[in-house]
């Protein structure tokens, strides 16, 4: 018997609750529209002086179903592993994310869980 595991995404209340004590949350954006060999994700966390930091990552898809460690993949831009933008509030960061990435649902998970999202992508045979 197999048990299906469904990804549980954080609600906005949970996002607020977890960001305040300094947790890092991630959102897997999947493959780049322009290049299916590039994977993208973002993370949010509390930065200096209570600002919210949004870090965006783009890496080459070097994995497979047995190697899901996105963090070990080569960055698209080796000189700059990620881009950081600061926001005065969590709300302003979430508004920016929705607009920039054209998202209606914010599917944030705890840090490290995006690898499960990547695994689902691989299992579907999309990547």
Chart the SSEs and their pairings.
Blueprint: H1 12-19, E1 25-31, E2 38-46, E3 52-60, E4 82-87, H2 90-100, E5 109-110, H3 114-123
Antiparallel strand pairs: 1-2, 1-5, 2-3, 3-4
Characterization of the model:
It is a single chain. The chain has 127 residues and is of the alpha+beta class. It has one domain (12-123). Helix content is 23%, strand content 26%. It has three helices and five strands. It has helices spanning 12-19, 90-100, 114-123; strands spanning 25-31, 38-46, 52-60, 82-87, 109-110. It has a five-stranded antiparallel sheet. The relative contact order is 0.23.
Structural class: alpha+beta
Rg, Å, rounded: 15 Å
Mean pLDDT: 89
Helix content: 10-25%
How many DSSP helices? Answer: 3
Strand content: 25-35%
Multimer state: single chain
Quick recap of the structure?
By secondary structure, the chain is of the alpha+beta class. It contains three helices and five strands.
Feature tags:
127 residues, five-stranded antiparallel sheet, 3 helices, alpha+beta
């Amino acid at each position: 018997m197999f048990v299906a595991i469904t990804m549980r995404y954080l609600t906005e209340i949970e996002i607020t609750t977890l960001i305040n004590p300094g947790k890092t949350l991630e959102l897997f954006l999947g493959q780049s529209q322009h290049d299916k060999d590039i994977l993208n994700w973002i993370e949010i966390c509390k930065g200096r002086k209570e600002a919210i930091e949004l870090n965006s990552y783009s890496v080459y898809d070097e994995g497979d179903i047995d190697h899901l460690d996105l963090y070990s993949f080569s960055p698209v831009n080796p000189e700059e592993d990620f881009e950081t933008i600061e926001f005065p509030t969590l709300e302003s960061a979430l508004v920016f994310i929705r607009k920039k990435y054209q998202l209606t649902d914010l599917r944030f998970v705890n840090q490290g869980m995006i690898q499960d999202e990547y695994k689902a992508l691989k299992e579907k045979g999309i990547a």
